[in-house]
Design goal:
The structure is a single chain. The protein is an alpha/beta fold. It has a single domain, classed as Arginase, Chain A (3-Layer(aba) Sandwich). 37% of the residues lie in helices and 11% in strands. Helix 8 links the parallel strand 7 and strand 8. The longest helix is centred in the first third of the chain and has 21 residues.
Length: 387
Amino acid sequence: MSENCAFIYSNRFGDFCFGGNHPFKVERFALTHRLLCGLDLLSAPEVRIVEAQLADESDLHSFHHLDYLEKLKEFSEAEGRRADFRFGLGDHENPVFPGVFDWVRLCCGATLEAVRQVLDEGCHCAFNMAGGWHHAHAARASGFSYLNDAVIAINAMVNRGLRVAYIDLDAHHGDGVQEAFYRTDRVLTISLHETGKDFFPYSGFVRELGAGAGYGYTVNLPFAPHSDDLVFEQALRRVVMPLLHAYQPDVLVSQMGMDILRTDPLTRLEMTTGSVELAARLLRRTGLPWVALGGGGYDRLNTARGWTLLWAVMSDQKVADDLPEEILSTLKTLGYATTALRDEPHLAHPDDFCRAQEQFDRNLAFLERRLFPLHGMTIFGRGGGFS
């Protein structure tokens, strides 16, 4: 396996703003880049730094409706506030700001470049932290997402005859990606997320298994609030990795949202950066060509820390836990007192853990009964797979 890995980036990722009161802060991209540079994680000879380019408008047509794209482009070029709620545009969740169309094309183009680096340029993995907009639907913006870069990139791979596994580890269900591939067996989608019972986007229940030829190729594992590292590890080892082994994809795409971390302001999960590193190690160990995308994360520093640890694993570099002085001084000016790259170990309150474990056990039993046989899988402990 090639040891080359590609980091897709542009200073233009931070050129736009969703609004001062909006939870999505584009500053997280520059902060992550600064942290990676300060820890000397972008200078190894095996690391390729690749400038992101705008996706061609024709690339977007593989998923998005033309009338939606035309409206997004029109609003992007208009003066003053505009809204069209049929397309999910212009509300507080998905604001329209000057240049938004080119900005989301840049983020999408970065994902397409990550795919090119993995499939055509000899890299074993590539990371675009400005990707992972998994809530965008074919004709509607949703959940801060305007273009679904993952779907567009996966469509390009499927058109080349490849079987793709998409693993979504964001705290929110990857509903837009599920929508795109619900009826096909050419893409296996697995989403681990906080339950949609009372949490956006109110979907991703365990019984959503696909339809038609795609039945059994959509997998959802919703977590109860306050699920912690112990529950997350079980999901990885007992569901994700065995399914990857059974499906035998040609390419792996993962969405690595950092809103799973326990201090994220919008979510109720209690994972730590230990879960991020574990997931990264397990995915890298598959040996599959791997495209990783950013996704959610609404505490800027925690998101930067998590993505830094992800990149260290992807690029097979060791990184110390203590942050260097120049990084600490930068963080101090931003109002952060953190001095470590990794979180301290954390377990949920026993009552919360018991509820979370009980829900996981019920969901796992359902998948073992209804899903695993479709893939010729035995239950955990009696079958092979990645470990």
